[in-house]
Amino acid sequence: MTARKTRSRRCSPHTLAILAAFAQQPTQWQYGYDLVQLTGLSSGTLYPILMRLGDRGLMESRWKPSPERGRPPRHLYRLSPRGLSFAQLQLGEADYRRSPPLTAAHYA
Amino acid sequence: MNASALAAWLMRRAVQLMPAARCDWAEAMQAEFEALCSEAGSGARALRWASGCLLTCLMERMRSMNMPTRSPLGLSRWILGAEMLIAFGPLTWLFGVVVMLDLRGRAPGEFSALLISATLLGPAGLLLAARIIALPRVAPGRAARWALPGLAAWTLLVYGAHLGRLPSPDWRALMLIAVLPAIAVAHLCVLGARGERSLRPEIRG
Question: What is the ipTM of this complex?
Answer without folding.
Answer: 0.78
